[in-house]
Amino acid sequence: MLGFHEAMGFAIVSGWALLLLWGAVLFVTRRDAGRLYWGLLTVLQVVLAVQLVAGVVLLFAGGRRPLLHYLYGAVFPAIVLGVAHWLTRGLTKPPYHALFTIASFFIFGLTLRALQTGLGMP
Predict the structure, then answer these.
(1) Under a CB-based contact definition with an 8 Å cutoff, are residues 96 and 80 in contact?
(2) Whole-prediction pTM
(3) Domain boundaries, the chain
(4) DSSP result, 70-82
(5) CA distance 23 to 21
(6) Which segments within the chain are labelled E, that is strand?
(7) Which of 27, 62, 109, 122 is paired with 93 by a 20 to 30 Å CA distance?
(8) Cβ-based neighbour number of residue 62 at 10 Å
(9) Is the pLDDT confidence value at 77 over 80?
(10) CA-CA distances (angstroms) from residue 76 to 38, 39, 62, 82, 86?
(11) Which of 41, 55, 45, 42 is nearest to 115 (CA)?
């Protein structure tokens, strides 16, 4: 399970980086996000939830990481996603993806830091 959790950590960080870059390109080119962008966002949210479940299993199996690992990996990204969903709920015109691109910037940094603390890096 530890290997799965670690591999998923790398995939999650890479996925949020991709979403961030994709959203930035869309913003610069003044294009609206299509199905693939929204699909990637959905997949990343689901994978983040699966990662949370794997982390809880490891925690109950006796694995212990610094408190910041849990905050960076689950709590703070959930708050950022919740705020992004809440803010976009009332929008009436595009680009809706701009707020999720901004959120992906923060989630990329948070999950990268979670990966670093989970690997024992300072």
Answers:
(1) no
(2) 0.92
(3) 2-118
(4) HIIIIIHHHHHHH
(5) 5
(6) none
(7) 109
(8) 6
(9) yes
(10) 21, 22, 23, 10, 15
(11) 55
